Amino acid sequence: MATIRNLKIKTSTCKRIEKELHSYEKEVEREAAKTADMKDKGADPYDLKQQENVLGESRMMIPDCHKRLEAALADLKSTLAELEETDEKEGPEIEDAKKTVADVEKQFHTDDA
Questions:
Q1: DSSP output for 63-105
Q2: b/e for 34-64, b at 16 or more Cβ within 10 A?
Q3: How confident is the model over 21-49, as pLDDT tens digits?
Q4: What b/e sequence results for 5-15 when a residue is b if at least 16 CB atoms lie within 10 Å of its CB, and e otherwise?
Q5: With CB atoms 3.0 to 4.6 Å apart as the test, which of 25, 55, 81, 108 could cross-link to 31 if both were Cys?
C-alpha cells in the first residue's frame, strides 16, 4: 500500500542519487584534468599511475549511479501510480514527485543524446 510517506522517501531517494551522479560526473572531469596536467608536467610514473587509478574508480561509479537512479525512478513511478489509483492526485508531495520524475527523465534523455 503506497502512502504519502513512502512517496516522500522515494522522491528524496531519487533526488539524492541524481545529486550523487552529478557529483561523480564533476569528479571525473576534475580528475581527468588533473591527470592530463600531470602528464603534461611529466610527473613521476608511479604518481601518474595512481592518479589514473583514481580516475578509473570515479568513472566506474557513474554507471552504478545510473542503474540505481533507474531503479529508484521506477520505484517512484510505481508508488505515484498506486497513489493516483487511490484518488490521491493532489498535494505538495505528489507535485514534488512528478517534478522529480520529469527532472530525472530529462537527465536520462540528455545522457542518451
A1: HHHHHHHHHHHHHHHHHHHHHHHTT---SHHHHHHHHHHHHHH
A2: ebeebeeeebeeeeeeebeeebeebeebeee
A3: 999 999 999 999 999 998 898 888 899 99
A4: ebbbebbebbb
A5: 55
1 confidence band (pLDDT: 50, 70, 90): low
The gap between the terminal CA atoms of the chain, to the nearest Å, is 37
Pull the grid cell for residue 113.
543524446
Closest by alpha carbon to 3, among 88, 108, 107?
88
CA distance 82 to 17: 22
